Amino acid sequence: MLDLIKTLDPANGLARGWQIRPPDPGLPLWSLAVDIGGLAARGQAVDEYPLHTVGAFGVSRADTMTRAAGEAVERYALFPARPGPAAVTASAVELGPAGLDFAGYALGDPAVRDQRMRWYEGHWLETGRPVWVPAALVDYPLHDLSFDPTPSGAAAGPTLDFAVRGGLVEVIERDAVGVAWAAERALGEFDVEQEIAAARPTADWRHLTRLYRAALGQGLRPRLIRVPTLPGFHGVMAAVLDGDALAAVGAKAHENLGRALLIALQESLQIREALTRLRDDWGGVADAPDVVHDDMDRARLWLTEAATTELKRRLRDVPPVRPGAASQPPLALDELVAAVAADGGSPVAVDLTARLPEAHRAMGWHAAKVIVAGYQSLRMDERHQFTWQRARLAAAGAAVPGSFPHPLI
């Protein structure tokens, strides 16, 4: 078993410090923030996006520590560093079929196929065959206008398969919400109380009951929305509207409905807390950016009345979901890969374990980044048109993608 205290111990080289906070009347969740340093701490320019603090919220102290430690490890592994995966410098044209066709899969700008760039060795999860993956699809944070760097698809855990599976599930979730949002797909709303009444009283359902009712007790009305996703999975988008100028959205895809509802609600409350703190730091609601370039721009947008109005419009007259949907045990990695392939995705994984501090590797930590060619990736920079997975949107009924930026921060 991984030692979470040692994972976060600054003496072991990954965290510079951490702080845990118990639930309070305004936030019925534990929270843990971890300082992993930013790019400047790794010898890079201070003016680049300084990703210092990561963390997690949870329904218990143990759950929160587990999630926060995993988040810290996976985010640390995304920093460009050596040692790392095997790498080459070449153009897409030079690599030919040995390289991931980022242009054909709407993962990067076709205009740079002739330009030499850095690539990491990964492997196709269906076949196990090696494939070179552009570093700009792996490293984060990274400024490269020919790609759209994102932390989505990164995960960590006690084995490489565990990390790869976690990253793949996150990409499934992001694809589901991204397609549903851009295509304005038909949605359904869960009646949480009816779902609780119909479910077996497992730990996830008990935690969901307490968290949902605590949110109601604060005057919030969380909306738990079903999002179409991979067969056998439950896709949930949780929306918390707080007045006219704060809309927070979380999401989760999982084989177990109780887990999907719980984590989606938890994530939405976490985003609400983050937006509230940003609003306080900025001295009120800032003007919306003309174009969303990154997470901070997206946060500014989702602190505006225009964003809450858009979310209310989309959630107007959403029909109810029939309660008691069946859940299934988690799929093994090979089963999950086969299901994604049947859904039109071709997943690739890059092993990032070598980037972790020696102490963490010795503890048994592994980290990976997963990219699914053919799935809609999480759009960070709304300027890019080359990252729209247009065939997937068309299959969802969208002739053109919607213009209002998605709410996942």
From TrEMBL:
Domain YcaO span(s) in chain numbering: 56-409
Cross-referenced PROSITE patterns: YCAO (PS51664)
Name of one Pfam family that matches: YcaO
Protein name in the entry: YcaO-like family protein
Species this chain originates from: Amycolatopsis echigonensis
